[in-house]
Amino acid sequence: MKTILTTVLMTSAAFADVITDWNAIMLAMINGQTAQAQSRYGAITHLAIFDAVNAITQDYKPYLTGITATPGASPEAAAAAAAHHVLRHYFHANAASLDTDLVASLGRIPDGAAKTNGTNVGRAAATAMIARRANDGSATVMAYTPKSGIGFWQPTPPAFQAGGFLHWGKMAPFALARTDQFRPKAPPPLTSNEYKRHYDEVKSVGSTFSTDRPQDRTDIARFASMTSPTNLWNSVAAQLSRAHGMSLSENARMFALLNMAIADAGIAVFEAKYHYHLWRPVTAIRAGNMDPNPNTEGDPGFSTFIPTPPYPAYPSGFGGLSNAGSYIVERFFGGNRHTITLTNPALPGVVLQYTKIRQLTDDHADARIYSGIHFRFDQDAAEVLGANVARYIKQNHLRCARADQCGDSDEDDDQE
Description:
disordered C terminus, disordered N terminus, 51% helix, mainly alpha, 3-stranded antiparallel β-sheet, 13 helices
């Protein structure tokens, strides 16, 4: 997940509401932040929106207790005010444009007590969420001293940056009981045939001048390097919400679960990354003749198609966050029969179209291997981690006030 992240553009149907409007505003506002920061802002914004709307509709169990609403308050005003207040707090430089957006949102609502009371509820929910996350550890940057020896992460070319985001795995989760709650099992031993198989794959398709990387894999590798999981899955969810005609209350819950799952998957991923300290493929392949596996052939000149992010490999960050997002989206909209179109202004001529969620997740799993920055087993472990985090959150948070109320899938299968 790179620091510079650009906006995914989405095609949409005619249906829209204040939540999808402010979701788009949020994505524009967090554009250019790190993928990790984007996931946190997404969760804070949408949990504030959820609690504001839900205080009025009372369709679901709240995230934070104590948010109350005057009967008849406008949930649309509450949603807009909550999003505005959160984003204005974190993005002071954009206060004027956010104020303009709020005026536009509230201008669609008749003046009166309902609008005033809804706005007050939104601000109260946002204030409570900001206070909840004020000391969550996201700002407690920690220096990392790499472990020495074969198999351990080392700074990677070309920048050789120090290991980053050590603190992210120690940050307070939004919903998980512990940051290591779904830590994956250890990666395959360097001496194993499994390790050799995955080593050979990334060596073949992930190098700068690989002749084994087809154009479509080159396109998806470049696309994923410019797109965060928060941006990707919020864009997908907004398209599907419009296509399915979700209600305001349903959207409030769906986007809150989606962003909470992505954020907590990110926290869990970084806890695991700095537990295992696994080297990146570029380090492994350059040192292939020195590792304990006699079947790995090294290449001291190996370079990756996409620059390697500055932290350990296992499990994949994009894989964990992305699969948390895909789990929530599938539970609300199903896995098949979709019309999803993704483009990026930085990649003119590249249009990604999907009818199945699995197609999209498979593409983005491939992207990290064809970029040269991950082994396939990094992605496999991350996929399980992300699904487990999202499943836990879906089963235990923002549940329906009445058992027969929710139409989305709330299966209670065990974590993998």
